[in-house]
Design a protein that fits this description.
The structure is a single chain. Helix 2 runs antiparallel to helix 16 and helix 4 crosses helix 11. The protein has three domains: about 220 residues, Up-down Bundle (Multidrug efflux transporter AcrB transmembrane fold); about 70 residues, Alpha-Beta Plaits, CATH 3.30.70; about 250 residues, no CATH class. The chain is built from 18 helices and 15 strands. The protein has about 600 residues and is of the alpha+beta class.
């Protein structure tokens, strides 16, 4: 059994170049990926780049603490992300911290007051009838796709076969009929639809059969006809001027409109085009939605769909409005689901949807269906968010902190190198390149993690990287000291390296495991920027193991064959005399037997 083990060991140690080649290939591949992605520097956190950090605390509206759960918090993060993006902010961060906190980090260049107002208010979700719609900037009408409600009473949209699902919730809705450039809807001006649109009080008091279409509603009184004409003209003018391809125009479309008022809005269809809408008064409120889920429908072959269940009052409202819309022509048989003033879906119906439930189908994938379901759920989300703290960091202060951190890191590396040169001399030829490889891997991975998972290098993370210098150097020292112990026992260098490695390996793994465990616990239980420290510490601890196993040990094995180290040169750091080594070990033998002279028969 001993011979095969020795054979394997010898074979493994005779090819240390393989390990070196493997880690060098990994470095080249990661570096190439970094340059290919265009992200050649780590993404900086708010405390280094400057900006505003807002901490929000979730509070249940009715005192039910069970409402603060992971699903509701994730949904809130999704909505706040949309709000921050609506401000035109790039590289903003919205993430949960702990069980009930949300941290919103907004880089410099953003109006912090506007951002605080946007992310701190509760989302408003409404179902509004579509009066007119067109692709923003389109010059001609496009046909409306065909669709039909399922027997169970579901709203369904059937995009054309060449449409592709977008990652936004609005991708669920099919492209609506597009009016001509003069804003006509099915051959009549949009202003006519505005005049004929029922008020909320009219629709609430009229049954679905009696008010099947906007034209069936009560006509305005003579005294109010002038003001109705003025309002219709104003909405028409806003609609004509609205350019939803403009980010600023999208964010201000319908701003300040009340639920009972007609308004304009923007939304994105399944082809990724921005559409503009004229929307009637809100008929159903988001709080009327009891539950919304993304479901994979295998019975009808519709694929991913979004199911909605309404409250008792919401069921009656939804049946009324869908009964009215079903008797209209496109696009006035559509209802727009509007979240924070933006249309996230615009399905159409062909019958009244009764029974308290509905299903929206279309060109969904799992991600887009789940996104729309989350937004529908948010309308009834029993959470409000209170502002815990707001921290503003100027770019100048962030630059000073980064500079101080880099200086501290450089001083730390310099002190470690000086220590290695003084105490380990020639062995620093191994330690310094190992530190360099570890630094390169850390930098490249941090640069790649920025766009990949949103990792941002903040000041605590820089501190974690500085602490990691000592952890990495400690691993080298453990290995070197084990080798020197073997030399003190009288062994030559090559056997000393191979005997020292298993003992050093165990110590290094145990030490790094403890460091990684501490980093993992710290990352799990902490809130805020301390997580950056824990993440960096954990990452560099893992890289320490990789570097020691794939670079330091193979390089030591190769250099042990060189005369400078093998002969124990006084500057090698492995001089047997300087280490107080014992005489070379020799194999002991049993007592020698006499080979000459007569043998006494009695003694025999």
């Amino acid at each position: 059994m001993a011979a095969p083990k020795k054979g394997r060991s010898a074979n493994a140690q005779s090819k240390p170049g393989r390990s070196l080649a493997l880690i060098l290939i990994a470095i080249v591949a990661l570096t190439g990926g970094m340059f290919a992605s265009g992200h050649t520097t780590p993404r900086l956190g708010i405390d280094l780049a400057g900006g505003t950090s807002i901490t929000l605390r979730a509070e249940p509206e009715d005192g039910d603490q069970s409402a603060i759960n992971q699903k509701n918090m994730d949904t809130a993060v999704d909505i706040m992300n949309r709000r921050v993006n609506g401000l035109g902010v790039s590289e903003a961060e919205v993430q949960t911290q702990g069980s009930r906190n949300i941290i919103v980090n907004i880089p410099k260049g953003t109006n912090s007051e506007e951002a605080r107002e946007q992310v701190g208010t509760t989302a408003k979700l409404y179902f509004r009838p579509v009066l007119a719609t067109e692709v923003s900037g389109a010059a001609a009408a496009s046909p409306s796709p065909s669709a039909s409600s399922s027997p169970s009473g579901s709203a369904s949209s059937s995009p054309s076969s060449d449409s592709t699902a977008d990652d936004k919730a609005s991708s669920s809705a099919s492209p609506s009929a597009t009016p001509s450039a003069s804003s006509t809807t099915q051959g009549r001006p949009a202003t006519d639809a505005l005049k004929a649109d029922p008020t909320p009080s009219d629709s609430a008091s009229t049954s679905a059969s009696d008010s099947a279409s906007p034209s069936a509603s009560a006509s305005p009184s003579p005294s109010g006809s002038a003001s109705a004409d003025d309002e219709a003209s104003r909405i028409q003018a806003e609609y004509d001027a609205l350019d939803c391809t403009n980010e600023e125009a999208r964010s201000t479309a319908g701003e300040g409109a009340k639920p009972a008022a007609t308004t304009v809005a923007c939304g994105q269809n399944s082809q990724g085009q921005w559409q503009k809408y004229i929307l009637g008064p809100a008929e159903v409120d988001g709080t009327d939605v009891d539950k919304a889920e993304a479901v994979f429908n295998t019975q009808t072959g519709a694929g991913w769909t979004v199911t909605m269940e309404f409250t008792g009052a919401g069921s009656d409202k939804f049946a009324d409005i869908t009964g009215q819309l079903a008797q209209n022509q496109s696009p006035q048989n559509q209802f727009a689901i509007v979240l924070d003033g933006e249309v996230v879906s615009d399905p159409y119906v062909d019958q009244a949807l009764t029974g308290g439930s509905a299903e929206i189908s279309g060109n969904f994938n799992q991600e887009s269906a789940q996104s729309l379901a989350n937004m529908l759920s948010y309308g009834a989300l029993p959470l409000t968010f209170k502002e815990d703290s707001v921290t503003t960091v100027t770019a100048a202060l962030g630059g000073e902190q980064l500079q101080a951190g880099l200086i501290a890191g450089a001083i730390g590396i310099a002190l470690v190198i000086i220590y290695l040169l003084l105490f380990y001399r020639g062995l620093s030829i191994i330690a310094i390149p190992s530190l360099l490889v570890s630094a390169i891997l850390t930098y490249v991975i941090m640069a790649l993690l920025g766009p990949a998972i949103g990792f941002a290098l903040n000041l605590p993370a820089v501190c974690g990287a500085i602490v990691a210098i000592g952890i990495t150097a400690d691993s080298f020292i453990v290995f070197f000291e084990r080798i020197r112990d073997e030399i003190r026992e009288g062994r030559s260098l090559r056997p000393a390296v191979e005997r020292a490695w298993p003992r050093a390996r165990r110590t290094i793994l145990v030490s790094d495991f403890v460091s990684f465990l501490a980093a993992a616990v710290l990352f799990t239980v902490t809130v805020g920027k301390v997580q950056g420290f824990a993440f960096t510490l954990g990452l560099t601890t893992v890289l320490d193991v990789v570097v020691v196993f794939l670079f330091t040990k193979p390089l030591m094995t190769i250099l042990a064959r060189k005369k400078f180290f093998a002969n124990g040169h006084k500057w090698s750091g492995l001089d047997p005399k300087a280490l107080g080594a014992k005489p070379p070990l020799r194999r002991t033998r049993g007592p020698a037997r006499p080979t000459a002279g007569p043998v006494d028969p009695k003694e025999a």
